[in-house]
Amino acid sequence: MAFAHLDDIQLYYQTDGSRSKPCLVLSNSLGTDLGMWDRQAAALAAHFFVLRYDTRGHGRSGSAGPVTISRLGQDVLDLLDHLDIQRAHFCGISMGGLTGQWLGAYAPSRIGRLVLANTAARIGRPEAWLERAAQVRAEGMKGVADGAAGRWFTPGFIAREPAAVDRLVQGLRATAPDGYAACCEALAGADLRAEVSAIANPTLVIAGRDDPVTTADDARWLAAQAQDARVEELAASHLSNIECPEDFSACLRRFLAN
Known about the structure:
By secondary structure, the protein is of the alpha/beta class. The chain has a single domain, classed as 3-Layer(aba) Sandwich (Rossmann fold). Helices cover 45% and strands 18% of the residues. An eight-stranded mixed β-sheet has the order 1-2-4-3-5-6-7-8, sandwiched between helices.
């Protein structure tokens, strides 16, 4: 197992492919871990040095103190420094997409092409995130996990792929409440609507047509604000890389090959 020792935590990561290829960083959503990218890593490792990591408070990564979106972005920069990588493409989904927006706005020289999937410049209402953080600290992950499938996937996918859905839900159930709550609080404070117009990196915004959390309208707004962005819509809900893995990977290959 590979860990980057940051100032306050250990960040767990995995790599696939050759260091001789361009680096592509994959950043997970709230309540998941780097395993959510298994299909993309397998599909893209022949063309990229694929770098996946568990966001702090998730998976095997540590958690310490309050979390902000700038802290999550700095974790990516610190991981790249740890591996002596000066510049990388970046793909983040949901919370990972907010991390990508911060990187595009505040560290554009470290990022090549930017993929923002199932995300928005502000996700949800701050008070709802703070309520969820308080809930999991008081009651644990069960209540959040019980409703996750309907937030993440369409009913059709839930019916077709019950084992895949159950793995994701069980992973959420096993997430450390304090780490999850800290990231909820980061989302409560994350509002990049004033910053996204500064993003000049070539950007692909991926939307799920049936996503109730970060809608296709959110994606179109993001793309309209950034300086060089376009939108792809997939027949999926919130975790589009899992619900439509082949289409998602194909979008990445086409965009990153340009």
